[in-house]
Amino acid sequence: MPAPRLSFDPFRARRRATRVVMVGSVGVGGDHPIRIQSMTNTNTLDTDATVRQAARLAEAGCEIVRITAPSIRDAENLREIKRALAARGVSVPLVADIHFTPNAAMIAAEIVEKVRINPGNYADKKRFEVREYDDAEYAEELERVAARFRPLVLRCKQNGVAMRIGTNHGSLSDRVMNRFGDTPQGMVESALEFLDVCEAEGFFDVVFSMKSSNTQVAIAAYRLLAARLEERAPGEPSYPFHVGVTEAGDAEDGRIKSAIGIGALLEDGIGDTIRVSLTEDPVREVPVAREIARIAGTKTGAWPRDPVAAPAPDSPRREPIEAGEPLVLCAPPFPDPFAHTRRPTRTQSLAAPAVGLTVGGDAPVRVELDRPGALIRPAETAAQLAVELAGLRDIACESLLVTAANTGAVGDREGEASTGRVDPLGRVAQLGAELASLGLSLPISLRIEAAAPGESGDVVAAVLDGLARGTAPTLGRLVARVDGDTPMASLRSIAEAAMRSETPIEWELAVDPGAIPDLLRRALEATAIAKQAAGKDDEVRPMLSLAPGASPQAVRVLVSALADADAGAAPAPVVLRGAVTRAGERGVQGVSEPALLEAAVRLGSSLCDGIGDLVSLEAAGPAGPVVDLAYRILQGARLRTTRTEYISCPSCGRTLFDLEETTARIKARTDHLSGVKIAVMGCIVNGPGEMADADFGYVGSGVGQVTLYVGKQIVERAVPEAEAPDRLVELIKQNGRWVDA
Ligand code: SF4
Predict the structure, then answer these.
(1) Mean pLDDT of 471-482
(2) How many helices (H) and strands (E) does the chain have?
(3) Is ligand 1 within 6 A of the CB of residue 173?
(4) Which residue has the higher pLDDT, 385 or 482?
């Protein structure tokens, strides 16, 4: 099969053109805003509880409510639920969620506004059988499935009911799994087989989803589906997408994973309705989904611009999205948009007084704290920051970035007192000494404003002078901010000073996407001239970054322009910057929820593109929550595992225990197991398939009973719920994955 062509512009945020599918009175796709939806987790036969929860969801801003219909009785009760909601004046459209029960789907299509089917289990076998299907057997099986599916298509068409063809990673049919594997391609082919039946019957009110708990897989699958649909009908508005990350878990990690996967796709212009799946009260999903849609969808026009929700003046800077001349870039911005691959780069060493740090190449994506005010009040800030960083050893801040600024009082350091001037290098040395006294050796990098406007010129001159004379302390690297006004002479003197002192250099470019190629060209030219003047070899090359708040599109512009400019040379590592604390905002562990979601959307999108060798988060407040957030984002993007990963379903009417409470109990016992993936799933019907690549599974299999898995293998059945957490811990020990807390 030929490689698919990208169906979106990687350099500009534009919404994918789709037809409109009406779900009752709610339009999905076209020019409609991104619709927010969620799902009840009550027993569908409990009409009162389901109606109450659906009404709460609608009140919170949920525009479409899904309810599971595991049996014919459940499907029939949707009529009662609908009636009771109408009696309360709630007109939110309902979706019936169907797995394995075509008969229930046929009933639901008489009652609700939309039916969701899973192609992996609508009428296909799902027994994890490994066998070869030859072409004739495959076609025969497919025709059997189509024959079961066709009546539902005809009923939906006749009743004006929409349909979601919702494929999930890990829940493909045996037929598809054996031919394509549990891959994005398998997910896409599985959905398209069902679309063939719909189109053959002239039914087009179809919405697609391609969910996975693995953000990289979800992004690849949605992009691949968009490309395949574009191939089927080039230039025509396509089908809308329902976007989500399934089994995302709860709390910060559930929010971060959702923001990465959903946000990355919305940034690509892909997504018309979204659901955030949290193992919490579903009502709490709604504000999270709204915020992700606002962050990532506003640029594409898929989320209404709301002046009240405009960024606060002190929030991360945003570049004008449509700014600049048309971009002419030759190199693709990512290695492979349909399968996560990390962008290959050369390795750069950042110096530290004792042990340095490698960035890029085979090194994991590194974590840096960017503390802009750390040099302002030298005495107490240096000591305070050192103590704070020393207290973080479990989650190791690997690198520290401080900014040379001409603000604050002149310190009591000998040099400053006598000259009456700020001595940034002296302050860095003091910070290094404070850290060393606590046994910490990490690279301290120093940022300067390349343009050196006004009084800051003194500070920049002092830094460059110290570097040139060899009196500077060991710097991790010199970071120079560059914008359109920076004179070439400044760039050259910075590059020369860095080279003479053998200090690695990073050019931090201003964020206007239209200007990035030119800024980059000037920075590289200045580096090349300085290299020649200093008689250095070709290996002296800069790192690159954009100022905090850069969009994923701007980062792609940088990477593509870099590849154009760097043709043939080993690619430079790229630093991803974010600013996470806004004045006066504190929330989850010190970082507010909007700030956490924004960092996850922006950094996660680039990381899932395979771009980024160092994540540098700017924060004026406590270091711990910010460093912790950087590691959580790396784990959410599946790039660096530093803690236990939980894959827990959001629960629904099939759930056989209190999922939130059970997940909390299991977390309390296991959350120190770095790198272990544990699935907590509410039912045996879907749980085993959808727990995807978990190492251990805890799956409800009957009232008060749990089945335990190692990988996809059942190892213990019908374990009483009270004993199950202990048995799970035993299993982890038996499999050599346990360490004591
Ligand atoms: S795995 Fe969880 S959310 Fe999915 S069907 Fe089962 S109980 Fe419902």
Answers:
(1) 92
(2) 21, 25
(3) no
(4) 482
CA nearest to 79, candidates 53, 44, 52, 55? 44
Q: 331, 557 in Cβ contact below 8 A? A: no
What does the pLDDT read at residue 217? 95
What's the first-to-final CA gap in the chain, in angstroms?
49
**What CATH number belongs to 348-636?**
3.20.20.20
Nearest-angstrom CA–CA distance, 382 and 531: 34
Which CATH number does 645-734 carry? 3.30.413.10
Q: Quick check: 36 and 70 in contact, CB under 8 A?
A: no
- Relative to the CA of 99, which ligand 1 atom is closest? 5
Q: Are 369 and 623 in contact (CB under 8 A)?
A: yes
CA 11 to CA 599: how far, in whole Å?
20
Nearest to 368 by CA among 345, 389, 342: 389
Atom of ligand 1 nearest to the CA of 683: 6
pLDDT at 420: 67
89: number of Cβ within 10 Å: 8
Hey, whose CA ends up nearest to atom 8 of ligand 1? Answer: 652
- Residue 552 CB less than 6 A away from ligand 1: no
Alpha-carbon distance of 480 to 488, in angstroms, equals 13
Which of 39, 279, 655, 701 is the best mutation target for the ligand 1 pocket, counting ligand atoms within 8 Å of the beta carbon and taking the most?
655
Q: Is the pTM of this model over 0.85?
A: yes
The ligand 1 atom nearest the CA atom of 685: 6
Question: Which atom of ligand 1 is least distant from the CA of 650?
Answer: 3
Are the C-beta atoms of 263 and 294 separated by less than 8 Å?
no
Q: pLDDT tens, 516-543?
A: 989 999 999 998 888 888 777 655 579 9
Q: Is the Cβ atom of 683 under 6 angstroms away from ligand 1? A: yes
The whole-angstrom separation of Cα 201 and Cα 300 is 33
Interval 558-564 mean pLDDT? 89
Q: Is 690 in the pocket of ligand 1 (CB under 6 A)?
A: yes
pLDDT tens figures, 364-373: 999 999 988 7
Region(s) of the chain under CATH 3.20.20.20: 21-304, 348-636
Residues of the chain with CATH 3.30.413.10: 645-734
Residue with tokens 């691949």: 224
Tokens 């949707």 identify what position?
78
The secondary structure of residue 66, as a DSSP letter, is E
Q: Is the CB of 656 under 6 A from ligand 1?
A: no
**CATH H-level superfamily of 21-304:** Dihydropteroate synthase-like (3.20.20.20)
